[in-house]
Amino acid sequence: MSAQHAALYRPLEGDKAIRFIELLPGKPSNVISINFIYDTLLMRPAPTYEATSYTWGSPNPTKTILCDGIEFDLRDNAHDFLQQLRLPDRSRMLWMDCLCINQADAVERAKQVEMMYVIYQTAVAVIAWIGRQDESSLIAMDYIAQLDSESVMKHARFEMWDGPPGQVWGAPAGQRQYIFETVTRTEQDQRLIYAVLKLLARPWFRRIWIQQEMAVNENTRVLCGSQEVDLERLIALAWLLLPRDSSG
């Protein structure tokens, strides 16, 4: 175990023991500061927290945050996520695997992975981070926010991730084109199509844990930079644009 991890983490006691982080309030220019909260999952009353979903990204570079007042090196993508989640005036209770699990302790890591289904199921919400915003993501997220996902679901049945990670059920090409033209409220042009396909090609959509993290909690939101949409809208768009096979 690294000296950094040894200084930060005290052992979890009990089969259902869990660590949360309290993300302390601050300004964008402030160093991110968190406190560890030790609790027991499934206790009554259950702790109120939000679970997170994201990609770890490259191990380098890192940024320094404060964990219980101790400096800790965090990967850039997780740091960006916390910076976006941080509120200016109040704390936020979160479960984030790169911090809430002692990654240097293989035994603890294995036990916590076994609990992940329940961790995501009992969270008040799941927040998925797909990365920083850019010019094309602004276009795509604006479009998704306007998408009439209920109308999409009226036209055909769909299921989430019943197949390879990062893919969803799709209708035959002709039906998808009809639905796309029928339910969209903004002009369909090449710039829009490029933007949404580029968004759906982000690494988060290829994560093997997506099915477990997303399917067990109905209150799931997707965050791209400062823009946020409901998962249902994003999946409706993926259903239209990402067929499971090329038939039809």
From TrEMBL:
Start and end residues of each Heterokaryon incompatibility domain: 49-213
Protein name per its UniProtKB record: Heterokaryon incompatibility domain-containing protein
InterPro entries: HET (IPR010730), HetReg/Transcr_Mod (IPR052895)
